[in-house]
Structure formats: C-alpha cells, structure tokens
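Weekly structure sync, notes
Attendees: PL, DS, HV (note-taker this week)

Item 1: AB hydrolase-1 domain-containing protein
DS walked through the input record. Source organism listed as Furculomyces boomerangus. Sequence as pasted into the shared doc:
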Amino acid sequence: MGIPSLYLNQRDIIYCANDPVGSRTQIDLPSDYGMSNYEQVKIVTKDKLNLDAYLIKKEEIGLYTNTKSRIGTTILFLHGNAGNMGHRLPIARILYNLFDCNILMLSYRGYGRSEGSPSEKGLKMDVDAAMEFLKQNPTTKNTKIVVYGQSIGGAVAIDTAYRYKEIDAMIVENTFTSLPDVVECMFPYVWFIRYFIKDSWASKNKIGSISVPMLFLSGRKDSLVPPKHMLELVTIARNNGGESKVTFKEFENGNHNDTCTQFGYFESIQSWWENLGL
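Item 1 (cont.): predicted structure, written out as tokens:
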C-alpha cells in the first residue's frame, strides 16, 4: 500500500470494525456466556448517534443501600480496534464471576450495530455518552467505576481517566504511547508519515496527570505495539507522583491479542482489585 493510500485509508486501517468478517452483524449475547442478568441498551451521543451496548448487572444490586462502598463497582469495558463487544464476552464473564460487578460493554461508533464512523473525536463523544449513562442509570449511578481498556481501548481508557474525576481506577492492556509513535515503529523507513496521522491518542501526554490506581498488563512478545510503549507509560506515571498508584505486570509469552490468556493474568487483576477494596 502506497503512502497516499495509507493516508486516505488510515482510519479504516486503525479502526478495523469489519474484521473479522461479520463483525458488524454477528454479535454474541451475554446470555450465550451464562450472564443472563443484562440489558441491551442504546446510548445516544451528543451528535445524535445510537450506540449499541450491554449493561451486565451484578445479581444482588437491589439489596444494597445507596452508597458507593455498599453498592459495588461497574467496569466500563473499552475494547480494542477490531471486532465487536461480543468477541470480548469471554473476558467479561471471567471478570463478572470474579468480582460480581456490573459491566458496561460499549460498541464504539462504526462498530457492531452502532451508527457512525470511528475517529478519536468520535470515540471521546461515545465515552461521554457512556459516562452520562452510568451517572443516570439506577443500577450504576452510585457505583465505583473502573475503566478497562485493551490496545486502542487502553488509549480510550487513559483519556477517560484523564478527563473524568468519577473514575475510581484503571486497567490497561498492551496500549501505546501515541498512534504516531506506533506508526513510526511499524514503518521506520517512512517515519515522516507520523506527521500525517489524523488521530493522535497521545496517552503519554495524559498519563502523568492521572491520580487513580492504575494496573498495566503487558505482553512481552507483543508484535504489534512494542512493549516499550507500556514501559514508557508506566515510567511517566510513576515519575509524576504515581509510584504508589501504579502496578505493572508483564507476561513473558503474551502477544498483542493473547495476553489475557496467559497464566496469572486474571489472578493479577484479582489481587490488585482486592488490595484496593473495589
């Protein structure tokens, strides 16, 4: 693919909403994975797009009083750049079983059955709408909120924790310092194309300002996003007063898309979660 084509088609390359085939129409349900207490909801963005989402509810939510410490926790699940939210339901099921928490799984604009086309500006508006939904919904409005993001979803999670004081903690997996940095790594001989990337997702400029507890999960054999990106983000966070807030876990054999299958992955999340009392 030539440089002009890369420039013109960059968002289709970055946001692979049609990969694998059927990702826009074939979306598994939480009930397919044993999570029957859920709602399929439509979330409307500021620019009037309808987003598809699943709100998976903790079973005993109605027994608790109206305080954050008693009512529990909600995970805002922010998926990677390919597929749809249904592809992440196996991960959601494990988190749900471990923590008995609510999970809001969001299909970004242009993904699954959500309307629109993805972009950095658009995905930020999607998160704005999701956060408003969490604030207003009776099930989630008084819960703690943990953002969990994989790959580009990690960049979305970092931006969300940077912009919203309502976020109580953050988990990111195999994410990058910025999109231009990734492009330069992928195309070192035409490094200058980094200056023509429309969406920056400059996490390295935001991570130092985030004060909530952060868990970084990094696959050492990531062949898409070099692991040095995660290490740089961790270093920036620690150097900006976040030493006690940062937990960094590496998985020796983890590649970009299979780190969540590595031994100790969910145990690391569980230990971190329990130490925080979420």
